[in-house]
Structure formats: C-alpha cells, structure tokens
Amino acid sequence: MPAQLAVKRSAVGIAPVCLLVLAVGCTGERERPPSADPCPTWQDDLAPAIDAACASCHGAEEPAAGYDLSSYEGAIAPDARGRPRAAVGDETSPILRAADPERAEPPHDDVADPGLFSELEAWVMRCELSYVDSRIHEPGIMNPRDDDFHGALLRDLGWDFGECAACHGADFEGGVSEASCTSCHAEGPTDCETCHGDLEDSAPHAAHLGGGAIARPLDCQACHPTPDDYRDPGHIFGEDGEVLDEPAAIEFGALARHTPPGYDRDGPPRYDRDTQTCTNVYCHGGAFDDPAASQTAPTWTDAPDQAACGTCHGDPPADHASEACGHCHPTMPRDGTRVLDVNLHVTGEVAIHGDGDCADCHGTGEFGAPPPDLAGRTSTDFVTVGAHRAHLQTGISAPLRCEACHVVPDELHSPGHIDTPPPAEVFPPGHESLAHAGGAEPSWDRDTATCSDVYCHGGGDLGGDGAPGVNREPRWTAVGEGEAACGGCHGVPPVDDDHEPDFGLTDCHTCHGDTVDQFGNIIVTGPPGARESAHIDGELDAD
After folding, report:
1. Residue 142 in contact with residue 149, Cβ under 8 Å?
2. Do 122 and 116 contact (CB within 8 A), yes or no?
3. What is the separation of C-alpha 63 from the centre of its chain, rounded to a whole number of angstroms?
4. Contact predicate 471/459, CB 8 Å
5. Could you say which DSSP state residue 315 is in?
6. 247-275: b or e for each residue (b if 16 or more CB lie within 10 Å)?
7. 105 lies in which domain range?
8. Residue 230 lies inside a defined structural domain of this protein
9. Bridge partner residues of 532 (DSSP)
10. Following DSSP, what letter does each residue of 429-493 receive, concatenated?
11. How buried is residue 435: exposed, middle or buried, by Cβ count under 10 Å (0-12/13-18/19+)?
C-alpha cells in the first residue's frame, strides 16, 4: 500500500454524509460474504489519498479540465461529453487511465502511482465506487447512476421519508445514525431543490429557469402547478395517497396564458407530449399571430435557438417596417437587436420609451418632434431633424402641428405608421391640411430638402405676389438662415393690386389688426401649449 494510503480507518472515522437507511432497520446489518481483500471506500481511503496526490491540480477552485476531485460527486461526475470519469466495472474509466503508470499520458505520467492505481482499480472494478463502509447500505448509495442510489431507493419505497427518519432523525440532522442528510441537502431532503435542483443545469429546463440573453429566469409555475408541500395531491401522490406513475403535469401559468391588447390568439396555450411542442404560448409569440415569426411552436427537446430573435415575433414583426427596435423599445439598443434589459422583455407588457406617446420615439420637449431623430441624431443638417423644432416653436405664428405636413396616426398600430418603412411621408396624396390652404398644392423634394407651393411659405393664392426676395422653395435644413423671415413668404408689402408700394410693417395693422400690432409685430397670444395667432392660420384677416 502506498504511503498516501497508509491511513488507519479508525483514525479517519466516518464524517456525516447523506446516507439513507431504507429497506432495513438501523441496527440491522447487511449480510456480506467474507473477503480477504476488503474494499477501499471513498470516505476512508480514496478521499485522503487523492487529496494528497491530485489536489494541487484538481482541487475545488478552478480544477484542471473542470475535473474536481475534492468530492465524491466530482470524482464520478461526467466529462464535457457526458461520459462518467469513473464508472462501475469500466476499466477504461478516465480516472483509471490517468492513475495507471502504464497508460498515463502527460501530465499524469509523472504522478501516476502503482499503489494509488491499485486502490482505484479495486474501487472501480470490484467495489462499485463504494462511498463508505456501511453495515446497512450497498456501495452505490451515493452514486446517482447506481440502482442502490438513495434517491432511487426512496422512490421505490413510495417516497416514505419515515423510513429515513427512523435512523436519520425527524429533522434529518443525523439521529441515531449520526449521519446528517443536510450535509448535502442543506434545506432537507423534502425541499424542492433536493429532487429538482439539477434541472437548472440541464437543457432545456436550464434555458427557462436560468434566464439568458433575451429574458429573465422563469419560475416553475410558468408551466407547472407547484405544490406548497411535497405531499400535496397531484405532485407525487394522488388523491388516494398512492404514488402517481405519471409525468409532471403541464399547467401553464398567467404569463404563458397572457393575450396582449389588440390580439386574439387561436386558443389556450397547450403542450403536446407526443410531439413535445408548445403552441399558443405567449412567451414564444403564440398570442401574436405574427407571420414573420419563425418558431412559435417550439419543440421542448430541440436546440435553444428556438428562442432567438425572430422566432417568437419577426425581426422585425410583420406589422413593423423598421428593424431599429431601439427607436421605440428601451429593451433594445438603437444600433442592434440584442436585449439590453431582460427584466423588461417577455413580461406581458410591451416596453415603450416613456409613456407610449409620440414624443417617446419622435423627439423630446413639449411638442415631441426631432431632435433627436429616430437614430438619435440632433444636428439640423440631417433631413430627419431639419426645421421640425423651428415649425413647432415658431415666433411668427401659433406653433404648427405635425398634421400640417404628415398624417398623424390615431394609435401606434394605425395603418401607414410603423408598418411602412421610413422616411415619413410628407404631404401624402389625399391628406388635406394647413399646407393646402388658399388653393396650394404642396410638394416635398427629399433630395434637395425643399418644399414648394406650400401655403405657409407663400403658395396658393399668395403665389401671385411678385415682390423681390420671396422664397417659395425654402430649404428644410437651412435652419436659422432666414428661410421664414418677414418678406420671405410674401413681400413687405406684397406686390399686387391691394397694396401700395410704400407700405411698411407698421402699416399692416391698419387692415390686419388681428394679425399685426401697430409696431409691426405678429400677434401671438395664449399660454405655452395653447398659443394662438391669426397669422398663418389658413384664413385671410383683413378689415
């Protein structure tokens, strides 16, 4: 026996472990044939030996190759490909290859020890990965892959925890066995985590319970009825107290059943166990009826990309033209489709910047017009910004409204709003507004960023004014350059049959007293948000 194994079992003792006494009483002993070659156990032999030989590389903190040999669970755990590193009766088990001086490869060839290998070989090949030398339990009591695993035995006993409590105490803290279940199961063997905790690490449950890049973690109640106590009927026992031999019940919660305002799902959420698919589930877009969505009926066992952007709703949705989600939704950046805040996504409510009014997407301030534009830009050199604010904060008239140039939707999803791509339509066919007053036929040239024949800029009936300096094709992006100064829309005075050529601004009030005061100032009255003026209102004010 190598030096690291020369440890008297009586000196090591048996530390508290998760042992469950199931089929026999506490004082009973398992009959076993006499053996001249007793089995090494993890608790008494291999744990101290492996700690001495391997802990420097395979300790609990950042173990090499992810193989943690500081615990029994880690020693028998599967590798990244799902193969157990120690399997009963398997001479090719990785733990044996690494310890065998004849098979070990670098870096294990320098540390492989014949004595350690001999003990490990007996432990794997002959002794069923025995955890502890117990008079009561079989060697596989701690091995989840063994038929004698304590969880499997408890299941076979109809989940009668009284059998366990007889030896481990009513509180499972050790009892007469002095082996505490809570050393492994901190909240006790009847806690949800004891049986279901590993679901958080296994796909596809992990994709729901662990959250991810697009949504916060979901609770079990999202898909299952959750008992208050493990003994509640419908959990593992039926109404008659008999153990249920049925798979977990699927009963969708409020989020999965949610139907957003304005939508009408085909039916209630449903799980088909034969095809393992969910349908009509809000969380996967089943309530939106979006033809642009690629996977609204995901298969439970398929890859996690079934919840990628574009699967639950289109990217963009069929009734959205813009791909810039972040323009309206605070969950997304303006320049991409990643989710910024998973706590605002898949909640049952559509997150919109601000309160969901026009200003949340189309600008800031009292009137909610650019700047900024939908891309967040503020310079008036951009046609998407231009003179928006100059029209809404004009000093020569009451503020002009968006409907003077655009069709303003009644709501977010009104036809022609977000279901059509930018740019916004200007003076669209069939739309009548202030810009059309006086017989004007306004038009907009985006390439040159100019308007023409707009009432507000001297179009229509005012078009006969031959005064020099009149600018009937103002440049939208020439903000602050006098495009709408006095004399730009009509002459001062206009050159026509109704005005004397020597009239000045102080003469205007003699005929247009509701529009201009005696000093030649445009009259604008009313508080902010309710400003009024007879100037540029579509009607001629003349005494």
Report:
1. yes
2. no
3. 31
4. no
5. S
6. eeebebbebbebeeeeeebeeebbbeeee
7. 3-190
8. no
9. 525
10. TT---GGGGGG---EEETTTTEEES-GGGT-GGGGG---TT--SS-BTT-TTTTTTSTTSSS-SS
11. buried
Is 43 part of a structural domain of the chain?
Answer: yes
Q: For 486-538, what is each residue's pLDDT tens digit?
A: 889 999 999 988 889 999 899 999 999 999 999 999 999 999 888 899 999 99
CA dist 175 and 136 (Å) reads: 15
Instruction: Kindly state whether residue 269 falls inside one of the protein's structural domains.
Output: no
Domain count of the chain? Answer: 1
In a domain, 111, yes or no: yes
Amino acid letter, residue 60 = A
pLDDT in tens, 181-228: 998 899 999 999 888 887 777 778 888 988 888 889 999 999 999 999
Following DSSP, what letter does each residue of 138-195 receive, concatenated? Answer: -GGGG-TTSTT-HHHHHHHTTS-HHHHHHHH-TTSS-GGGT--GGGT-TT-TTSHHHH
Give SS3 for 221. Answer: helix
* Three-class secondary structure of residue 256 per DSSP: helix
Q: Is the separation of the CB atoms in 348 and 218 below 8 Å?
A: no
Rounded Cα–Cα distance for residues 354 and 364 (Å): 10
